[in-house]
Design a protein that fits this description.
With about 160 residues, the chain is of the alpha+beta class. About 20% of the residues lie in helices and about 40% in strands.
Length: about 160
C-alpha cells in the first residue's frame, strides 16, 4: 500500500465462521479463538514451533490458536454481545485482516452484526480502532504485518 492508501475490509464474525473480503479476495475460517497458555507457549518454543506453526498467530504480542485449531483445543466461543470485547472480536478481525488484505497500512473496517446487536455497535468500533486509530500487529509463520484501523463502522447484516 502507498503512503496514503487506505484498504477496505468487509468483515462478519459470525457464530459459525469468520468471513472477510479485502484486496486479496475473500476468506473464511471457523469461528474459534483460544489464547495459548504459558505452558503451551513453552512447549511450542522448546520444539522450535512457536513462530512457525501454521495454527499459531501472534496478535499484538499475545499468542493464539485460531479457527479449527482453537476449536480442537477446546476454545470457549463467544456469541452475541459477549464477543464485542477487546480481546476477542478485534483479535479475530486482525487475523482476518492478515488473510484478506495485501499489505501493511491503514484500514477501514465495515463489521456486520445482527440487528439485535446494534446497541453493541460502539463496542465493536471501539475494540477495532479505539478512540482515534489503533494499530494491530499480526505475526504468522515468520511474517509480520501491521495494520492501523483508521475507520470502523458497524452495519446490520440484512443491509
Amino acid at each position: 500500500m502507498g503512503k496514503h492508501a487506505v484498504e477496505l475490509l468487509g468483515l462478519d464474525v459470525g457464530n459459525a465462521a469468520v468471513k472477510a473480503v479485502g484486496s486479496s479476495g475473500s476468506i473464511t475460517f471457523p469461528h474459534g479463538l483460544g489464547e495459548l497458555s504459558q505452558r503451551s507457549k513453552d512447549d511450542y518454543r522448546m520444539r522450535g514451533e512457536l513462530d512457525t506453526n501454521k495454527n499459531i498467530w501472534k496478535v499484538n504480542g499475545t499468542y493464539y490458536k485460531v479457527g479449527a485449531a482453537a476449536l480442537e483445543d477446546g476454545a470457549m466461543l463467544r456469541y452475541g454481545e459477549s464477543r464485542y470485547i477487546d480481546t476477542y472480536y478485534p483479535v479475530l478481525s486482525a487475523v482476518a485482516m492478515f488473510m484478506a488484505l495485501k499489505g501493511n497500512g491503514d484500514v477501514i473496517v465495515m463489521g456486520s452484526h445482527t440487528p439485535k446487536d446494534i446497541i453493541y455497535r460502539p463496542d465493536l468500533i471501539a475494540g477495532l480502532k479505539g478512540k482515534s486509530a489503533r494499530t494491530w500487529t499480526v505475526c504468522h509463520r515468520g511474517t509480520e504485518r501491521t495494520f492501523r484501523i483508521v475507520g470502523a463502522y458497524g452495519i446490520d447484516e440484512p443491509v
